[in-house]
Amino acid sequence: MRARQLEVFIAVMRASTVTAAARMLNISQPALSQILLHTEDELGFTLFERVKGRLRPTPDALEIFPDAERLSAGLEGLRRKTTDLRLGRAGLVRVAASPPPAMAILPRAFTRFREQHPNILLRSHSAPIAAIVDMLRAGDASLGVAMDDRLPPDIEAEVIGSIGFACLLPAGHVLQKKTELMLADLVGQELISYRGNTRPADVLAHAAHAQGVTLSPSLEIDASISAVSFVQAGLGVGLVDALLPWEQFTGVAVRPLANGPELPIALLSSRARALSRADEMMRHEIRVACAAVLSEHRAKP
């Protein structure tokens, strides 16, 4: 029994007349009668007896009716599901991001996305770049956001912006008198910054060499957010990305790094895995959120 035949059978069972059933399905009475007769021919038994203008279900029809209703409910659920997916009303979006974009960009992107698609489940993972690549490959995340575009060929990296660096100063530090700092100002300071062989460390080392400066962190970190507690404890000056909203942390003075290098902000996906419609909508929101965050950053005095 095909889907349309199933609909007609259930409609006639519920309405008891061809006229009422045809009205329920918004088709003509002759068309419904033809579908019903064709269904009975295919099944090899009669579904209804015609009695005084009404259709009386046969024992065979009564026997299959509960199964037909269950099938119809399943088909209706499938229709709703496919419609929701097409309109972006259902599904799951998984985004893996390194801590700076996870804290600065994703909240804005998720807020806009949730306003438009409240029924889509969102899942966020905060992870280093190597773990993000593994998650994209395995399908554990459909999108990634990281501050690195030097990735393997099977990972697509769309650069959606760039951001400079900032200096985090302990309370009362002598460099607080300056409104912005240069790399040269950090020479001789106890420096808290990225470990070697990472994108931020490489970018900073190249800029320092170009400016004739030698920087040597005394405390190396993997994630910029971990610098906060060390700076608050007075262990040194943090040299970190400027993407995170550092001003929200107490006991830390923030100064921009002038004439410094910039880090790319990349939107990542696996070339081997197609994105769902919901993934594509989230990708758009991440682009919009990144642009807004960077615009606000540039507008800071």
Automatic annotation (TrEMBL):
Gene3D superfamilies with a match to the protein in the record: 3.40.190.290, Winged helix-like DNA-binding domain superfamily/Winged helix DNA-binding domain
Superkingdom to which the source organism belongs: Bacteria
Keywords: DNA-binding, Transcription, Transcription regulation
Pfam families with a match to the protein in the record: HTH_1, LysR_substrate
Annotated HTH lysR-type domain residues: 1-58
Family of this protein: Belongs to the LysR transcriptional regulatory family.
Name of the protein: LysR family transcriptional regulator
Organism: Mesorhizobium australafricanum
Upper lineage: Bacteria, Pseudomonadati, Pseudomonadota, Alphaproteobacteria, Hyphomicrobiales
